[in-house]
Amino acid sequence: MSLKQLIENCKIDDTKAQGELYKLFSSKLFSVCLKYSRNYAEAEDNLQDAFLTIFKKIEQYKGKGSFEGWLKRITINTVLQRYRNEKVFDIINENIIEDVELEVDESLVSIDYLLQIIQELPDRYRLVFNLYVLDGYSHKDIASMLNINLGTSKSNLSRARQILKRTIEDYKKTQQSQSL
C-alpha cells in the first residue's frame, strides 16, 4: 500500500492502516521524542501521545509538503505542550549572557555521551538547545513555540552551551587522567 493510500485509510480511522503508519514512522519519531524528553520512559509516553494527536489531526494533512516533516512537527509540539503544561518556563526571566562556542572533538567525546549529557540538561535549556541547534528553529520560532520571550530563548541556549562545555571539559580531564 502506498503512503498516500495509508494516509487516506488513516483518515477514515482504519486501525490496520494506523498500525502500519505507526510501524513505518515510530522509530524516527521516537528519536525525536527521546531528544526532547527527560528519559526513555518519558519518550515512550510522548511517542504514544504524539501518535494519538497524529491520528486525531491526520485529516488536516492535505498532501502538501513532507508528510514526515508534518509528523515531526506534531511530535515536537506534543512534547513541548507537556512542558508548557508543567510550567517549566514560568518563573524564569534570565538576562542574556555571553554566548559560548561549543566545539566537540569527536575523537574524545562519543555521540552517545553527547546525547546523554544533552538529555541531562534542565528542561528549559535542553528544549531550547535541541530546537535551535539540532532542529534549526530560530529564537523567534522557539519563543513562540515555548511561549517565552526572545531573550529567554537566547539566554537558555547560552546557558545550555555553558553547561555542556563545562561537562565536556570535565569529561576530557577525566579521560586524560585515566590514560596516564
TrEMBL record:
RNA polymerase sigma-70 region domain sequence ranges: 21-87
Pfam families (UniProt xref): Sigma70_r2, Sigma70_r4_2
Limits of the RNA polymerase sigma factor 70 region 4 type domain: 112-162
InterPro entries (alphabetical): RNA_pol_sigma-70-like (IPR039425), RNA_pol_sigma-70_dom (IPR014284), RNA_pol_sigma70_r2 (IPR007627), RNA_pol_sigma70_r4_t2 (IPR013249), RNA_pol_sigma_r2 (IPR013325), RNA_pol_sigma_r3/r4-like (IPR013324), WH-like_DNA-bd_sf (IPR036388)
SUPFAM superfamilies: Sigma2 domain of RNA polymerase sigma factors (SSF88946), Sigma3 and sigma4 domains of RNA polymerase sigma factors (SSF88659)
Keywords: Sigma factor, Transcription, Transcription regulation
Record has Transcription as a keyword: yes
PANTHER family: RNA POLYMERASE ECF-TYPE SIGMA FACTO, RNA POLYMERASE SIGMA-70 FACTOR ECF SUBFAMILY
Family membership: Belongs to the sigma-70 factor family. ECF subfamily.
Record's protein name: RNA polymerase sigma factor
Organism name: Flaviramulus aquimarinus
